[in-house]
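Friendly challenge for the regulars: who can give me the structure tokens for this chain first? No prize, just bragging rights.
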Amino acid sequence: MNSLAINQALIQRQLMVTYTRYQYSEAETVSPMGPLTLLSPEYRRLTQTVNRMQVVQTTGPVVLTNLTERNVAAKLIQLLAVPTLPPVMQPIAPSSAVLQQAYQRGLLVTGRQVNSLTTWAVPHDQLLLADLAAQSVPSVLALGPYDNTNVATIIDDQRQVVLSQLSASALPKGPATYQYTIQTTAGKTLLTGLPLAAVTPALIGLQLGLSPQWLGTLLLGQPLLPAQVLAHSQLIYEQLQATAAQPIKSAADVMALQTATDLPIATTIGQYRYWDQANQRPLTPAISDLLVVPALTTLYHGPQAELQTTANQLSAGILQVAQRRNYRLQRQSRQLMTQGRADRLRFSRGQLQSFQARPQSESPFGQPIETVFQVWSGSDQLGVDLSFQALVHQLLDQID
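First reply, four minutes later:
Bragging rights claimed.
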């Protein structure tokens, strides 16, 4: 297929190509005996500019992702040569083997559906931290209102505003999302508010004997925001409606939860996130009420000794698994520079030569620097640009 035929076929199949432009550091090998770990906060110069491409349906679902300018032509020709699209990419999820082995070791995963109820802005982050630490309340909403007649604000016992309610249109409301809890089979909650992708790393960490508090802070409190991003972001508190918890003992249970339509609302819960208000998108993962004090303390003051120890132990456990399987792991730092739609694709000799970029608006203060991983078996590259969660899932079909 030539360039014209590919562009026309994309339109006919209601598909489009998008691009994401990153700056990367040099790749470095991570070994069990070296100073570099999977989770240590190294800083590196970003010396390479790379475009990553993906193919998405015009209605939203992603069809192909993490394509390079070298292989996007071949992948598109292969995709367009058949009348049906491949299955929509599924989120990173724990396997049935991981869930069942964890259950045998006394750990039960539960999941629930959550929907946004109200959102609040935090005017003063340090005041919030001080109030939560001093009063030891389970939720910021328990701080007030102390005879406050304005229900759109929460004030503390010193009559200082801790939360200001936002209008319903202030932030975009997406579809229902899902949160997961890990508890002992005796019923004691260890970690809550986990996204699906964090369940397997959390199960591994708990089975390594790591502290639930520091493990949760590690998995939910990253990435650390650079100063210029943090300075112009907004801390948001979200009050959510949550359904009753459903036991998750297999991959089928995950699918059942995510396709259920009649689950009754059982309670309300809260979570925090930093938002890029200019582009109305979150900058950090959701941080549950139970972890907000250690997570924000880490963000403002850097990793504490307990958190660094937890990160080193979790990294060491995963590296030992990689070593037993003769995998070599590399890590890179990268930063999102711009992204948008790629139109008028031009190909030559089987490779993408150029495209018309239609960039989305970006924050003038930049994006957080993230860490991504590559997996090698000899000279074969098994994975590229993997998040930490995706790396763990690729390495571990079951917990050794």
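The chain has a mean pLDDT of 87. The radius of gyration is 22 Å. Your move, everyone else.
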